[in-house]
Amino acid sequence: MTHLFSKEERLKKLCAQLKVCTQCGLHNSRINAICGEGNVHARFFFIAQAPGETEDVAGSMFLGPTGKVLDELMAEIDLERSSVYMTNLIKCRLPKNRKPKTEEKNSCGKYLLREIEIVKPEFLIPLGYHATKFILTRYCRENILSSDFVGKLIYCSTQKIYPLRHPSAALYNPLIKQAMSLDFRKISVFRKPCKWYPTCPMKKYFEKGWLDKKWVELYCKGDWASCKRYQLEENGQYHPDRMLPDGSLLNGLK
Ligand code: SF4
């Protein structure tokens, strides 16, 4: 559907509503409600939990020590803030950085879902427990949250989701930074499709309607570095045409 208004205009309107929002009690203690920032045409859409004190005062996203960790992680893969979209699940500061309440997530989450609808990113990247739980519950329609999802690409309701730890975790536990960095680097893989896709049997099977789209989205246009076919191809090892990206065999083919 073509909209009369551009993405920029629609987000600006949403931001104006957000700035004066009084739907939950957090408006009483905030200085600024923080709108999403970045590239409105981005493929990567980061979702943090909520603004901290520095962000609340300055009226902008990811400043202070947490912003520094995020900038370091992004610099490792040459990813610039201007090429991604960033927003929060909760748009106003949580007093004493307490956990968000269910009613706050429900009322504020509506703004987040509108932003996703407008930006239409290819990858949603929720950061930390609350943003991940909200997104998985919304898109996967079941409570499937576990730490196993961190750093793993998921495909639910035609949306690719890549949950990561929140950058603030590195401030509390510096040992975790290395694992965060490894998970973050996977975003580099997502930047381009698998080099074997044009000649891969999976492309042919998908185009003939024999293969579920999830395989193409999760591997060929997602995490191709984890594809068993890709790994065997790179090592020059035999693999049957009907081998799926996870190493299992596609049934029903002659
Ligand atoms: S199935 Fe694997 S090797 Fe083939 S295009 Fe997809 S990611 Fe690449």
From TrEMBL:
Q: What is this protein called?
A: Type-4 uracil-DNA glycosylase
Report the catalytic activity.
Answer: Hydrolyzes single-stranded DNA or mismatched double-stranded DNA and polynucleotides, releasing free uracil
What's this protein's family per the entry? Belongs to the uracil-DNA glycosylase (UDG) superfamily. Type 4 (UDGa) family.
The keyword Metal-binding is assigned to this record: yes
In its UniProt entry, the species of origin is given as: Gaoshiqia sediminis
Under Pfam families, the record lists: UDG (PF03167)
Gene Ontology MF terms in the entry? 4 iron, 4 sulfur cluster binding; metal ion binding; uracil DNA N-glycosylase activity
**SUPFAM superfamilies in the cross-refs:** Uracil-DNA glycosylase-like
Which NCBIfam families does this entry report, sorted A to Z? UDG_fam4
Q: Which superkingdom does the taxonomy of this entry point to?
A: Bacteria
Question: Ranges for the Uracil-DNA glycosylase-like domain?
Answer: 35-191
Give the matching Gene3D superfamilies.
Uracil-DNA glycosylase-like domain
**Alphabetical list of InterPro entries matching this protein:** UDG_Type-4/5, Ura-DNA_glyco_family4, Uracil-DNA_glycosylase-like, Uracil-DNA_glycosylase-like_sf
